[in-house]
Amino acid sequence: MADTPDLARSVEERLRALHGPRLSVERVTPLHGGACQDNHRVDLVVDGEKRRMAMRGDAARSLPGSIDRRAEFQVLAAAVAAGV
After folding, report:
1. CA distance 25 to 38
2. Which residues of the chain fall short of a pLDDT of 70?
3. φ and ψ at 61, to 5 degrees?
């Protein structure tokens, strides 16, 4: 998997703005296999603890009927709140 340092810097800047300076992004790498979204693995360190997360974004082209990532987040948040 190819590391994307420019995207990693951008993600780090955004996350630090939300969560503070004790967060660093080590790398962002594309994950292949998504049909209608861009998916990336994000390796980061928060308060000295290594974490691995997935980041999803809208692809340049989408399938008819696909919802955007903001709507997808709202659906997932509602499912979690309902105990799913």
Report:
1. 18
2. 1-3, 34-35
3. -125, 140
Q: Which two three-digit tokens encode residue 67?
A: 């919802």
**Residues whose CB falls within 8 Å of the CB of residue 25, separated by 6 or more in sequence, listed in order:** 8, 9, 11, 12, 15, 42, 43, 44
DSSP label of 37: E
Alpha-carbon distance of 44 to 15, in angstroms, equals 10
**Distance from C-alpha of 10 to C-alpha of 28, rounded to nearest angstrom:** 10
Structure tokens at 56: 């999803």
d(C-alpha 57, C-alpha 37), whole Å: 6
Give dist(CA 15, CA 80) in Å, integer: 22
Question: Distance (Å, rounded) from C-alpha 21 to C-alpha 15?
Answer: 9
